[in-house]
Amino acid sequence: MPAKRPPPRSDVTPAGKLSEACLHHVLGYQLAQATIVTQQVYQEHAGEPFGMRPVEYTVLTLIDENPGGSLVRLARALAVTAPNITAVVDRLEARGWVERSQSENDRRSQVLHTTPRGAELARRATGQILAAEKQALAHLSLGERTLLIELLHKVACARPQAGGA
């Protein structure tokens, strides 16, 4: 059985061992440090294997979980501009993962759906990401991981709401 690592000191950076006592309680700083871990996990287990940037994975998965949604709703959900979300959807459509069709309710707007290939890709990538995150965060109990996700979601929900639909 491998020796357990001692718990990390709470007043130094995980890499470089720089003092961070003043930053330790700054949520944004801790989120940025945690993002380094999750970005590496994503890149190794989904980004490189599937040739997909994180924003492309996010948009593909949101479209898969919300078929018939619009570009406007995606842009609002991700706090990006309409041209930015359109560019991402254009790339997904060019790769055969997403298709657009005219809305039956409003002929001026388009609705989004994943193709069977896109839906399968979203599910496979999610499975690989979840498994890799579980492994990377094995030092956290299931309860701690669940609590972390719930708390981060609550932080995200503190964002001001802009409009409906």
Rg value: 19 Å
- Termini, distance in Å? 53 Å
The CATH superfamily name of the domain at 55-151 is Winged helix-like DNA-binding domain superfamily/Winged helix DNA-binding domain
**For the largest beta sheet, what order do the strands appear in spatially?**
1-2
Q: Which CATH class of the domain at 55-151?
A: Mainly Alpha
CATH topology label of the domain at 55-151: Arc Repressor Mutant, subunit A
Structural class: mainly alpha
- Supply the number of helical segments: 6
What share of the residues lie within helices?
55-70%
DSSP strand count: 2
- What fraction of residues sit in β-strands? 5-15%
Mean pLDDT rating: 89
Could you say what the CATH architecture of the domain at 55-151 is? Orthogonal Bundle
Can you offer a commentary on this structure?
The structure is a single chain. This protein is mostly helical and 165 residues long. It has a domain at 55-151: Arc Repressor Mutant, subunit A (Orthogonal Bundle). It is 57% helix and 6% strand. A two-stranded antiparallel ribbon has the order 1-2.
